[in-house]
Amino acid sequence: MDPFMVAAGSAVVGAMASEGWQDARRAIAALWRKPHPERVPAIEADLEEVRVEVLTARKAADQQTEEELAVEWRRRLGRLVAADPELAEELRRIVDRLNPPAAGAPGVMIARASGRASLFQSGGDMHVRER
């Protein structure tokens, strides 16, 4: 999967549990307005429904459900941009607003670990001690 779409799906799902959710919801729904204005009400309803799932998952510390929801939105956003590539830049601006890089950070870091792997990422100094 395209790393940008991974970041986009994660940013949308992460925004669902943030104080800026209403602005994020409007921005995401607006992506559909140009190519599919008739779908906007359904997209807005889906976003609100998934938000409830995200909040429930966070309350239960259920990271797997949250990741599954992010995958779902990665795919939806990916299909939307594939159908109308001009939307990619607007989506990039939305993702940048949802996940602004920390001061001095070079950009978004994306990683995936599976099995018994350990994963460490840092935008600055990192000290790891063995247990």
How does this structure look, described?
By secondary structure, this protein is mainly α. The protein has one domain. Helix content is 60%, strand content 0%. The protein contains 5 helices and no strands. The protein has helices at 3-15, 21-33, 40-59, 63-83, 87-98. Helix 1 crosses helix 5, helix 2 (21-33) packs antiparallel against helix 3 (40-59) and helix 3 runs antiparallel to helix 4. The chain is globular and about 55 Å long.
- Count of discrete domains: 1
Coarse structural class: mainly alpha
Helix content: 55-70%
Strand content: under 5%
The gist of it:
Helix content is 60%, strand content 0%. It has 131 residues and is mostly helical.
Task: Offer a few descriptive terms.
131 residues; mainly alpha; 5 helices; globular
List the helices and strands and how they pair.
Blueprint: H1 3-15, H2 21-33, H3 40-59, H4 63-83, H5 87-98
